[in-house]
What does this fold into?
Amino acid sequence: MAALRRRLWGRPGETLGRMATGAVRAEELAERLRAKRSEEEKRREVAAQPARRRARELAALQQVHPNVLAKALRQRAVYQDEEVVVLNKPYGLPVHGGPGVKNCIADVLPILAKMLVNMKAEPLHLCHRLDKETTGVMVLARSKEAADRIRLLFKTRQVEKIYWAVSVGHPDPAEGIVEIPMVEREVQSHQPHYKMTLAPNYRMSPEDGKVLKIRKNRSAESAVTQYRVLASSSACSLLELQPITGVKHQLRVHLAYGLGCPILGDHKYSHWSKLAPQKLPEITLKRLKLQQSKARHLPLHLHAYRLSLPLGTSGSKQIDLVCEPPSFFHRTLRKLELDIDKE
It folds into this structure.
């Protein structure tokens, strides 16, 4: 009987060892299942948040190797001649380096120059700049002399620039000029920061409602923006903007604080006293299939659409450069039913 019991159950120590080994294996299996479940949940979460996924995709170029970035920029070249190279600048890529910036356009210009056809070893030169979140026409010069000429054209306002922007709200009137000086000021809040803002030369008297001229802010810069509504729908508008001057964040500030219609995805200038995601109307959220809590992932919808400038030493060669908006911009136009062909 004892022999039979040993054959069936083994020795007591052996039984405990087998039980312990089985418990470890069970725990390992459970851990693998939990990890697999966690990964699946993360994938489902990202898939359920297209705005968040697109935000990650748009920021991807900041993380790649400089050679990969230069190759991506080469593929976005829309025009080349003996003087200039014109790119359709991607979203989320800074022009210059700074704190926390891993990749920027300026850093890869020598690499990009070697990838272009008919290009000497001399690196390309920046002629102007676009904000990190702005897409569209960007001009690079093949030589320092050409860069100096083109920078002077920008400075003397001989370059015609046309932007497209999606605004939250409808400007009234639908066409006009915003001519309000701008200045940079510190915002005193729980998170102090700096913003560009309006510095008007006039104000309205609270006593009698009369318009009074006020002392000009010495730090303020003249800022002039011409605008026109191309289409309106879903509590938003597609605008054509022509900056006559080139003040920092001019279009964003004139739209947000001058017209009361901030650019879609402009979380910085949708509020003055705080840094917070843009608050969107219900109809806009519905058309975008977006929850307000995920609005912070919306990219800035500002695109440098067209740029015209005279080239050559005598300025006899006038070129007109056009860059199509990025895919996320087109998707937003479709979702909001901002059909510019209505006209």
